[in-house]
Amino acid sequence: MKKNLRMVIILSFLLFIYISICAISYAQNVSTDIANSVFRLHVIANSDSKEDQDLKYVVRDNLLNYMNSICKDCKTKQEAILVAKQHINTFEQIASNTINEQGYSYSVKVNIGNFEFPTKNYGDISLPAGYYDALKVEIGEAKGKNWWCVMFPPLCFVDISSGVVPDDSKELMKDNLSEEEFALVSEQSNQEIQFKFKLLEFFTNSGLITAKK
Fold first, then answer.
1. 124, pLDDT greater than 70
2. Is residue 27 part of a domain?
3. Nearest CA among 91, 102, 110 for reference residue 44
4. CA atoms of 185 and 194, how far apart (whole Å)
5. Closest to 58 in 3D by CA, of 76, 74, 46
6. pLDDT digits over 42-81, tens only?
7. For residue 112, is it within any domain?
8. Contact at 8 Å (CB) between 91 and 84?
9. By C-alpha distance, which of 117, 128, 123, 122 is closest to 194?
């Protein structure tokens, strides 16, 4: 009897290990594919004062307008990053000019890299936490609240209160993800999808699958 019990315990433990490995592998693959499909924007204000936060949004708007004009024909994240890298000095100049025009003398630092992002919702699209390639803009001391968005596919839509991402943006994301991966970021009303998204968040937040490039 004790021998049988020990066997049951061993088999249960092995099954748990197997399921855990499968779950981590699934979460790792999905997280990587989603991160590989988007190019994000991260703007950090000088401080949390109303004036600095307002300035942050003006800088954001001007950078997005420029990004949209130079990346309107991009079909993949890689194309968008290449174009952004070729114009990074212009991004910095636009941000600096905007700051000066608004009456401030803050310095600005713009760089493209791989940075950590929390889970964020963009209308009816949700992106899990993880490391993403992004254009990072630091205004002044960069000690204020962050503003996060997605530059490609363009999810930085103006009326975020509507809760709906433009169809053309969704199509670009859909083209760069598998059917299940797109469902994970766009179908949060589905209970099975919600469970998988929470599973992805759990492993990411625990640090088991979060690896900076």
1. yes
2. no
3. 110
4. 9
5. 46
6. 999 999 999 999 999 999 889 988 988 888 788 888 888 9
7. yes
8. yes
9. 128
